[in-house]
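Whiteboard transcription, Tuesday session. T.W. wrote the C-alpha cells on the left side:
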C-alpha cells in the first residue's frame, strides 16, 4: 500500500506537538522531572475518590492516587490499559491480518470521543477539496453532515436489504468519467464509506460474500474502506467477518464505539487500522481534543479487567437480547397496523426499521406535519439521501427506546 497517496494535504502537514511529546515521555518514565508540561497540580483537584456500581453488582473503585491519574492529562492515543483491551477485542472478534505486518505498518488504534469524533478526523485525513467520496445511499445523516461542508463530491452507491451493492460500486468505478463529479479535474474516487452491519438508516447487514466482493473491488481500484461499525455488537445472529478481518493490505480504517453497548454519554470509541493512517489521526488528536477523558478510559478498562473477555461477551449478549425483543415488538405493531400500507425488511440487528410507504412519493411533509401533529417523531428518508433534494418513499423508525404501548400508539396514528 502506498499510504501517502491517501493522506490529505492538511493531514500531511500536521507535525508532532512538542508539548504532547513531553507528555508521552513523562507517562513512560514517571521518574523524569518535567518542567515542560503545564500539568495542573492534583492537590487542587476537588475530587478525591469515586465508586461506580454496575448492574451486575461489580464496583469500579478509584482511590485518591487513582484519581490523581484519572483527572490528569494523558496520552493522545489513549491510556495503555484501554489500548490493550482494544487490541484484545480486535484479536477475538476480527483477528486483523495486518497484525502480522511490521510495527510501523501494522495494526494500531487511537481512542476517540465516540466514533463520530474519530470519524470526522478520518475524513479530514483522507479528503481534499474536490475529491470524490463513495458512500452508501441512503447514508447515515451524521456522516453527510460531516462531509458535505468539505467541498468534496459525494458519489452515491446503491444499497438494498443486504446493504451496499457490489455491482453498483463496480459500475461507478468501471464507468468513471470526470463529469460524474461535476469537476473536470477530479480523479477517480479513493475513499469508500460504508456501515456494513445493521446500517443506519436501513438496518441492512452485508453478507460475507458481499464484503469479499467489495474488498476485491477496493483492491482492484485501490480504495480505502472506511468501515463504520457502531452496531457490530447489536447483531442478533452470528456476525459475519468484518472488513478488517479480510484486510491483508491495510486499506481498511475501522470505526468502533462503546455508545451502543456501554453508554452513549461516556463518549468512548476508537479508530483502528494500519499504523500510517492511525499515526496521522493521533497528530490530529494532539491538535484538537488532546485526548479522550482519562477518567472515562480508566473506568471502562477497569470494568473490562473485572469482566474479562467472557464477561464482556455475556454483557453484549444481554444487549443483543434486549434490542431483539424491541425489534420484534416493532415488527409486531407494524404488521398489525401497516400491512398493505407499507413495506419493510426485518433488520438482523441494530436499532432501526426502514419502512417504505406504499403510494407515497416523498414522506417529508407527512412526517414533518401530519406525524408531528399526532405527536410522533420520525425521520423522512430524504434526510439520508446522498444527493440533496432527492425525494424518498421511506422513513426511519427507531425501536430502541419506545415502550410497547408507545410503539402501538405511534404506528396506529
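and on the right, the sequence the group agreed on:
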Amino acid at each position: 500500500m502506498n499510504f501517502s497517496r491517501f493522506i490529505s494535504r492538511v493531514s500531511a502537514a500536521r507535525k508532532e506537538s512538542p508539548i504532547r511529546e513531553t507528555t508521552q515521555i513523562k507517562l513512560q518514565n514517571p521518574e523524569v522531572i518535567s518542567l515542560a508540561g503545564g500539568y495542573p497540580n492534583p492537590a487542587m483537584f476537588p475530587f478525591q475518590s469515586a465508586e461506580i456500581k454496575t448492574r451486575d453488582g461489580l464496583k469500579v473503585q478509584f482511590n485518591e492516587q487513582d484519581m490523581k491519574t484519572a483527572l490528569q492529562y494523558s496520552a493522545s492515543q489513549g491510556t495503555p490499559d484501554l489500548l490493550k483491551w482494544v487490541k484484545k477485542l480486535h484479536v477475538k472478534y476480527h483477528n486483523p491480518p495486518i497484525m502480522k505486518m511490521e510495527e510501523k505498518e501494522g495494526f494500531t488504534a487511537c481512542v476517540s470521543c465516540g466514533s463520530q469524533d474519530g470519524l470526522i478526523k478520518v475524513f479530514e485525513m483522507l479528503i481534499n477539496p474536490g475529491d470524490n467520496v463513495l458512500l452508501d445511499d441512503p447514508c447515515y445523516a451524521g456522516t453527510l453532515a460531516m462531509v458535505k461542508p468539505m467541498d468534496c463530491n459525494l458519489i452515491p452507491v446503491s444499497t438494498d436489504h443486504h446493504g451496499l451493492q457490489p455491482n453498483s460500486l463496480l459500475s461507478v468505478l468501471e464507468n468513471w468519467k470526470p463529469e460524474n463529479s461535476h469537476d473536470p479535474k477530479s480523479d477517480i474516487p479513493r475513499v469508500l464509506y460504508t456501515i456494513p452491519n445493521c446500517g443506519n438508516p436501513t438496518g441492512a447487514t452485508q453478507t460475507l460474500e458481499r464484503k469479499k466482493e467489495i474488498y476485491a473491488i477496493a483492491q482492484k481500484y485501490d480504495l480505502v474502506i472506511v468501515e463504520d461499525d457502531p452496531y457490530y455488537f447489536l447483531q442478533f445472529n452470528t456476525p459475519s467477518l468484518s472488513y478488517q478481518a479480510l484486510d491483508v493490505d491495510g486499506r481498511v480504517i475501522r470505526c468502533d464505539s462503546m455508545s451502543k453497548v456501554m453508554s452513549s454519554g461516556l463518549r468512548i470509541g476508537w479508530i483502528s487500522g494500519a499504523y500510517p493512517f492511525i499515526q496521522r489521526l493521533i497528530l490530529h488528536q494532539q491538535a484538537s481534543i488532546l485526548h479522550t477523558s482519562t477518567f472515562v478510559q480508566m473506568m471502562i478498562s477497569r470494568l473490562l479487567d473485572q469482566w474479562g473477555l467472557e464477561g464482556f461477551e455475556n454483557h453484549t449478549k444481554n444487549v443483543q437480547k434486549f434490542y431483539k425483543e424491541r425489534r420484534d415488538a416493532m415488527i409486531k405493531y407494524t404488521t398489525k397496523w401497516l400491512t398493505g400500507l407499507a413495506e419493510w425488511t426485518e433488520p438482523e440487528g441494530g436499532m432501526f426499521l426502514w419502512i417504505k410507504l406504499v403510494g407515497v412519493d416523498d414522506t417529508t411533509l407527512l412526517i414533518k406535519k401530519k406525524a408531528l401533529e399526532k405527536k410522533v417523531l420520525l425521520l423522512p428518508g430524504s434526510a439520508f439521501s446522498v444527493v440533496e433534494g432527492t425525494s424518498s418513499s421511506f422513513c426511519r423508525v427507531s425501536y430502541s427506546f419506545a415502550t410497547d404501548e408507545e410503539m402501538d400508539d405511534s404506528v396506529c396514528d
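Someone added at the bottom: The first strand starts at residue 50 and ends at 53.
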